[in-house]
């Protein structure tokens, strides 16, 4: 029996202020190789053949989006002005806004706007590993460094064994209805997988690599620039 092909929708929360960058302009609009950081992120998602649509969640009244021309990214791209107070709120508001477009069984790939070095192979690895999965999962990398827990006063409390520890990245890929219900129940989460875990499920870990970094501090912007330049070469 042939199973129905579920669609894949990317949902990109881009409604944060990015205050840790120490800049006036939100980090998704900072310049990266001559264009807004967000454009790199959205281009990769829009170019992915398996992704049917790309929703970008902007803050309500975002003043910058409309000043730029995004038309070259094509018809897959849809802005939603429904950002919330936290990342989880922005994602949940986005999910509510696309109700009707997205069916319960369709896949949602939530990807941080602030990860502009996402590569096609990351998306391919995620989708090909998870397409038949019951739960869904996330891109992640095994922790390489020895980890220390601080005592809160600048000294080591203890060493945390790094076996079995992974660093979570995005995209995080779950079925529409499962993700929506999980986020409606668990609001205090910093990623989608945590909400799914709170529902008692075990998201799959799909190994990515550290080039898919999140731009958080000013140095990260230089690293992202280096990664993108060397990937193009
Ligand atoms: O601040 P942080 O780097 O953790 O943000 C991760 C992603 O979540 C960014 O793409 C940011 O724009 C987004 N975000 C959001 N709404 C918020 C806070 C963060 O869409 N209220």
Structural description of this entry:
The protein is an alpha/beta fold and 233 residues long. It has one domain (8-232): Spore Coat Polysaccharide Biosynthesis Protein SpsA, Chain A (Alpha-Beta Complex), CATH 3.90.550. It has helices spanning 37-47, 87-97, 120-130, 176-185, 192-198, 218-232, and strands at residues 8-13, 31-32, 35-36, 53-57, 77-80, 107-110, 137-142, 147-150, 156-160, 166-175, 204-207. The strands form three sheets. It has a seven-stranded mixed sheet, sandwiched between helices. Strands 2-3 form a two-stranded antiparallel ribbon. A two-stranded antiparallel sheet has the order 8-9. Strand 2 and strand 3 (35-36) form a beta hairpin. Helix 2 (87-97) packs across helix 4 (176-185) and helix 4 (176-185) crosses helix 5 (192-198). It starts with 7 loop residues before the first strand and ends with a helix. 36% of the residues are buried. Bound molecules: cytidine-5'-monophosphate. Cytidine-5'-monophosphate (C5P) binds at residues 13-16, 28, 57, 83-87, 90, 112-114, 214, 216.
């Amino acid at each position: 029996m042939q199973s129905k092909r579920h669609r894949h929708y990317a949902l990109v929360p881009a409604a944060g202020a990015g205050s840790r960058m120490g800049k006036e302009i939100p980090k998704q609009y900072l310049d990266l190789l001559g264009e807004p950081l967000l454009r790199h992120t959205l281009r990769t998602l829009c170019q992915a053949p398996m992704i049917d649509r790309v929703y970008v969640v902007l803050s309500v009244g975002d003043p910058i989006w409309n000043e730029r021309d995004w038309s070259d990214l094509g018809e897959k791209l849809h802005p939603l002005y429904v950002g919330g107070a936290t990342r989880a709120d922005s994602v949940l508001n986005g999910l509510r806004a696309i109700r009707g477009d997205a069916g319960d069984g369709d896949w949602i790939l939530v990807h941080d706007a602030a990860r502009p070095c996402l590569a096609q192979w990351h998306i391919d690895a995620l989708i090909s590993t998870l397409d038949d999965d019951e739960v869904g999962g996330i891109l992640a990398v095994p922790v390489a460094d020895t980890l220390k827990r601080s005592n809160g006063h600048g000294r080591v409390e203890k060493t945390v064994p790094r076996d079995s520890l992974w660093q979570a990245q995005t995209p995080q890929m779950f079925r529409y209805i499962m993700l929506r219900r999980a986020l409606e129940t668990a609001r205090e989460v910093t990623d989608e997988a945590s909400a799914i875990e709170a529902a008692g499920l075990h998201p799959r870990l799909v190994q990515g690599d550290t080039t898919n970094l999140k731009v958080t501090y000013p140095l990260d912007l230089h690293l992202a620039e280096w990664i993108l330049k060397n990937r193009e070469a």
